[in-house]
Amino acid sequence: MSPFSTLRVFSLLIFPTTFLLGGDPLFPIDKEIIPQDNPTRVIYQDFEYSETILDWQEDVTFKPLRMLEFGQAGIPTAPGLVFSGAFWGNWLQEETSDAGKFPILSRFPDERGNVSTSTDRWVASNAALAITARPVNWITAYAQMEYSEVEFPGQEDWQYRKAFVMFGDLEQSPFYGYFGRNTVDFGWLDGYNPFTHTVNNHSFRVDSDDPVIAMGYAKGGLDLIGTLIPSGRQLRVADTQDDDGYSNGAFMGSYTFGDLEENGRQLRVGGGYLHSTIYNNDFPHHPGPTFVMSRAASPNLTRNAAYDVFAEYIHGPLRFGIEHTTTAEPWPATGVDVSATNLQAAYDFDLFDRPSRFSIVYGVNEQGPDGAEYEDLTQLVIGFETQVTDFLRLSAEYVRNEAFVPLVNIRNVADGSVTANAFIVGGKVNF
């Protein structure tokens, strides 16, 4: 399909409708499914909660804190349950200057299965089912099963990505903690656009494979959380040479100035630290040294930490964000620090009496020396979302990538001359 056909599809899907993103919800705060004749078994369905907790583009970190904030509004009222679900499906059309090299993030480079310069297909970006249980106000249990077409070797398409028990009640105390599997609170990692991950998310997100232990504090605009991470290789970026114990960890903090509800504007600034990353060995293979070849190539690993700083400013319908994440030391595989910088902006507005969002996100991922094929990659995403019903959003993106730099064997397969364009049109269903 040509770019002009893509734009026709875009206009047919987008302009008749719009999407609610931010602002007041178009539906009640919570809906009781089972009548309250049995107060010990009450099930709630809450669309705003589902969108927030299952969204993989916003509130990527600090999910447990978001749950506690919903708990302050009685979602759910203890004892109670919330069942949540989401499906993000889209049509993806890509064109590249070099056959077989498609650098869009959030997908594997070799999944197209061809050597052409263009490809299009329907894909399932993400699907999830979750249950939140609150037997008493100060205990929250959460479990999330997630589906993804993008699977590492040995993984299943359905996986338990989050499963933890949290202790805390912000009405009684600013302190809280949880134990279990979760996306570790390191980095902001949010993207204003509908589908494609930011460069910071791509290179520095930490998903735990083993249970983590976290303690947090939230009061008066100050949010702090520290996490103990098990030794060895976790999903994505956390890794240590030790195999036993909790020799890894992360810390994250932010402070919010102003009150968005009262004066329509606020500024949030923050930063974080990750004690040990996979950028600690001289084998250019992002999955890390638990792989046999990588461990053989790097028998003596060196610890390499990471730092993150970010800021977000919201003024009425406008919002702006900036984030920079970097390793503390050069990656032995490339000889330079791995870093990611992301700039983004969004405008929320009403179109045909429906709330909508237009977004622009630009990121640069640097990971090689000057002049190398794998020196850096850039990503520009222009996005739009619109709400059709309480359950359904329609979304679209234009993505432009420069340089093909996969984080797998990058010294041998990277190509800095590649330019690629992608068009994504799809929908998100929440319940």
Q: What can you see in these coordinates?
A:
The chain has 431 residues and is mostly beta strands. The chain has one domain: Porin, CATH 2.40.160.10. The protein is 12% helix and 45% strand. It is built from seven helices and 20 strands. The protein has helices at residues 3-14, 47-54, 63-72, 199-204, 260-263, 292-297, 410-413; strands at 31-32, 43-45, 80-96, 118-136, 139-147, 158-167, 175-181, 206-207, 212-219, 222-229, 235-236, 248-257, 265-274, 306-315, 318-327, 339-351, 354-366, 376-387, 392-404, 415-430. It has a 16-stranded antiparallel β-barrel. Strands 8-11 form a two-stranded antiparallel sheet.
In the CATH classification, which architecture applies?
Beta Barrel
Main beta-sheet strand count, sense and barrel state: 16 strands, antiparallel, barrel
CATH class: Mainly Beta
Give, in spatial order, the strands making up the sheet with the most strands: 3-4-5-6-7-9-10-12-13-14-15-16-17-18-19-20
From the N-terminal CA to the C-terminal CA, the straight-line distance is 33 Å
Decide which structural class fits the backbone: mainly beta
What fraction of residues sit in β-strands? over 45%
Supply the CATH superfamily name.
Answer: Porin
Q: Rg from C-alpha positions?
A: 21 Å
The CATH topology is given as Porin
Mean pLDDT value:
85
The total strand number stands at: 20
| Cα shape | globular
Number of helices, counting only DSSP H or I runs of 4 residues or more: 7
Spans of 5+ residues with little confidence (pLDDT < 50)?
Answer: 1-36
The helix/strand order is: HEEHHEEEEEHEEEEEHEHEEEEEEHE
Number of domains: 1
| Helical content band | 10-25%
